[in-house]
Amino acid sequence: MHPTKLFAPGPFQAQQLRSGDPYELSNGHPILCLPTGGRGARANLLGGTVLETDPAVEQAGVDAGFSPEPGTMRAPDVAVGHVPDVPGWVQGAPPLAVEYADRGQDEEELQSKIAELLAAGTQYVWVVWLTGPRRVEVYAPGQKLRTVRPGESLEAPGILKNPVPVEALYDREAAHEATLRNLLQRRGYESLEAVRDAGREAGELAHARAVLRRQLGKRGISLDAAQEARIDGTTDLETLDRWLDQTLVAKTVDEALR
């Protein structure tokens, strides 16, 4: 059991802490939180970016302080969900919390933090181990501890849309690949190949419209604003090709664009 649990509630409350203070609170007792090392700092940034860009995520933050009750204030390395854009500590707990554990990690204090987050309403806590064999420990209320290893993926149903490869939480190339996937999906594309396909299709449509207009001009058929808009609004290549064929014999716009 963590030492603070052996004592009566401590005298401190979350409202007494200021943003930037190097402390969390557990049962009213201060927990010193020192700056992370270079490896942890890099991993935090990479993993946080992957999670924040997931298409289902609207709010996420790094080191956000959560205070489910006055004597508790916990700041996960990365919090997903329930991170409002307002000053002050956040009431409650994030749906998904990510902790990075490296050399010198106080495992007893880590377990205390995990327990308090889950008790406050967090649905998943992912602990990314940067020391020893790379792995992610998954904690969820009422479930046995799971360990997910490189080559496998993590899921958070109802919080994230996409599975997260374990490596994307600490490896730069894997993180960039997952982030790109997320950003493309936020713009309506499932993959980079889908973007290329959309570009090719847009080019083909633009060419077909230009050829149609040129042929109409050769036939001495002018277009008004509504007819121009109709051509621009047509996204079916077969329709544009049919209009082009009809233009070869048409005498009026109605005959060409029927």
UniProtKB/TrEMBL annotation:
UniProt cross-references to InterPro entries, sorted A to Z: Nuclease_put_TT1808, Restrct_endonuc-II-like, Uma2
Bilayer-spanning residue ranges: none
Keyword Hydrolase attributed: yes
Pfam families, per database record: Uma2
Region Disordered, annotated ranges: 1-21
Keyword tags: Endonuclease, Hydrolase, Nuclease
Presence of the UniProt keyword Mitochondrion in the record: no
Chain ranges of the Putative restriction endonuclease domain: 17-157
Domain of life: Bacteria
GO molecular function terms listed in the Swiss-Prot or TrEMBL record: endonuclease activity
Entries under SUPFAM superfamilies matching the protein: Restriction endonuclease-like (SSF52980)
Protein name from the UniProt record: Uma2 family endonuclease
